[in-house]
Amino acid sequence: MSNENNETEKKVLTTTELLNNYTGSIQAGLDNGTKYVKAFESLNQTTELPDLLTAAVQLTNYQLNTDFVEFPHQFSDEDVQLVFFERLLKLSNNANGFGISNAEHVQKLLCKFGSLGDNTFTFTKSTKNPAGFFFGPTAHNRPLFYLNLKNKELMFHGSSLIDYFVVDLEGLEVSAIKQALQVMIQAAEVLKENFGFKIDFNVLDGVNGEFYEFAAGKIPEPILDELFVKSADNQYILMSGENGGAALTLDNDTKLTVFNAGNEDRPKWGADIHDNDQKESWLNLLLDYPFIKDWYLDNKKQLEILSNKIIFG
Asked: Is the pTM above the cut of 0.90?
């Protein structure tokens, strides 16, 4: 019985063992900090895109503090995404006036597009996925796109892009808006081409035949009639198409077609655009043709372009 008691007694550490554990824990904390520093140096200094992505993934959700070693000044996970995004553009020669605007202090980093003046932008962590982040303007709750470096995906949010660049920035030169949009498009293309990211360009997709699906499913006839009237008022002719659809020929042989890609029982109304250069996306169309913009905004509830519901809600 006494032997069993002896075996179950809690072992008492000697002073030497206690101090060894103490110094070992400190060393483990310092080693963890060194690993973090090496990854951050790579994020900040590497000239290789693969190393840049590896460092950003490693630093996202990195637990820098330990029980024995704490670091008072730390960049956030949102900051890591922004540093990655800025360096991605620079290393691929696509920065074009984009840059971090307040790098003087360790704080929440903000960025600016050169063509958009003093408007600032930043990343915000998703509440659903700790590896996912939303990029948007600091002055409005507009998640322009979702970025997940770990899962290799970037998804643009059509509704927020239109709300911000078409509505909030109304009055700004269209060329300035398109310059900022092009920076984001180029970043997405670099991620797709170099790392195989899954990209959903949504309303920024300029590929001919891209189907922009309307949220309502079925479009009431008066809404199409309204487009007929607005087109005529602006010296464009909207022609009737198959199954109640319509086709509108715009400038430079650009053609907008509104049609039902489903059937009568399960309607799936939407639109596609064809142009010679494959650059006219849905968002560009709204920027280039005010009467189409007005038609869309007047009927936004029915015409809103669908985005990923799981990500954007």
From this structure: yes
